[in-house]
Amino acid sequence: MGLVVQKYGGSSVADAEGIKRVAKRIVEAKKNGNQVVVVVSAMGDTTDELIDLAEQVSPMPAGREFDMLLTAGERISMALLAMAIKNLGHEAQSFTGSQAGVITDSVHNKARIIDVTPGRIRTALDEGNIAIVAGFQGVSADKKDITTLGRGGSDTTAVALAAALDAEVCEIYTDVDGVFTADPRVVKKARKIDWISFEDMLELASSGSKVLLHRCVEYARRYNIPIHVRSSFSGLKGTWVSSEPIEQGDTKVEQAIISGVAHDTSEAKITVVGVPDKPGEAAAIFRTIADAAINIDMVVQNVSAAATGLTDISFTLPKTEGRKAIDALEKNRPGIGFDSLRYDDQIGKISLVGAGMKTNPGVTAAFFEALSDAGVNIELISTSEIRISVVTRADDVPEAVRAVHSAFGLDSDSDEAVIYGGTGR
């Protein structure tokens, strides 16, 4: 008997009919001889509605109480799903994140998992039950407070449980049929990828692909847990994410030269103007940002002007952290010694990802030629062995993505990408 962890996103359990459809799929997995653990997100837009409600009550809700509120959405889903499974004649038990043994640090609203002790889950499975776990949440190791894991937290919960339980696979069910070569909302002819390596998926996820989040893939790679991304609305095979290519029949799926094109319009750009070009200045800037607990993405430093000995440093970060970053830098302005700050939240990032690009000359040239032919101006450039990223104007992103996708022969012969639930999660 194998052990399978399944995760269902909010669009999959958006209403009573969706919950009953998911319950049938779970029972089918149980009938196939598997032990089944299910991680579930809040129904539809429940989390967003709870956030709106909190902001109406308090403009700056306390982190502890905010987490207590947000975890209610997943608890509703898990209980309803357990009821639906029992109505189909199978036993199911629901567990909160803390009951499931998801132990986190004490950072509210974006906690990180530090351990998983799934004793109660194992007991439930040994008794023949299906275990339903509320995603996105855990309990802090020190104060035993309820915490939430931030964006993509349910995916991370599922992979963490799969690792702790030594599951054969972690199935991530969403409202598209797998991972595509681009966002099908932007590129209608995007193709479904049959298999993708952890490394390529990490780059796509960190570059804006929303089907899987970076932390989830990082956790899966660390513990070598294969992920199968599928739609809960169809019975089609999805995308396998693993360390080695999978076998399909008598053939092995090969690594593509280019895995896909990702984009992200959730970032902003800050330029620190007039920085003295001497050792320690960049360190002071980014220590200020780090002390404010802000993650940055791309960094570019201009060549200093010979006459002034000053340079400009630009970096990108989440829009939601923009005000906090500006305030932190202004507060430390005397210690750093810069002239001014510029803030721009009308930018977008386009990334080309593929392990094959490091051994195929001409990829970089073709990438920039495609952007040039589309009339897209480039503001920042960042590269790794398997990724090229550029920052452009936000308005240029859709056209840029389509141009790059076509230039590298990624277009499907037909509009095969179906978005069943409408949210992409």
UniProtKB/TrEMBL annotation:
A GO CC term attached to the entry: cytosol
Pathway the protein acts in: Amino-acid biosynthesis; L-threonine biosynthesis; L-threonine from L-aspartate: step 1/5; Amino-acid biosynthesis; L-lysine biosynthesis via DAP pathway; (S)-tetrahydrodipicolinate from L-aspartate: step 1/4; Amino-acid biosynthesis; L-methionine biosynthesis via de novo pathway; L-homoserine from L-aspartate: step 1/3
Gene3D superfamilies given in the database record: Acetylglutamate kinase-like, VC0802-like
Lineage: Bacteria, Bacillati, Actinomycetota, Actinomycetes, Kitasatosporales
CDD domains: AAK_AKii-LysC-BS (cd04261), ACT_AK-LysC-DapG-like_2 (cd04923), ACT_AKii-LysC-BS-like_1 (cd04913)
UniProt keyword terms in alphabetical order: Amino-acid biosynthesis, ATP-binding, Diaminopimelate biosynthesis, Kinase, Lysine biosynthesis, Nucleotide-binding, Transferase
Stretches assigned to the ACT domain: 270-346, 352-425
Task performed by this protein: Catalyzes the phosphorylation of the beta-carboxyl group of aspartic acid with ATP to yield 4-phospho-L-aspartate, which is involved in the branched biosynthetic pathway leading to the biosynthesis of amino acids lysine, threonine, isoleucine and methionine.
PANTHER family registered for this protein in UniProt: ASPARTATE KINASE, ASPARTOKINASE
Reaction catalysis annotation: L-aspartate + ATP = 4-phospho-L-aspartate + ADP
One GO-annotated biological process of the protein: threonine biosynthetic process
Any GO molecular function: ATP binding
Assigned protein family: Belongs to the aspartokinase family.
Organism (species): Streptomyces shenzhenensis
Enzyme class: transferase
Binding site for substrate: 47, 74
Domain of life: Bacteria
Residues annotated to bind ATP: 7-10, 174-175, 185, 210-211
EC number, as in UniProt: 2.7.2.4
Protein name: Aspartokinase
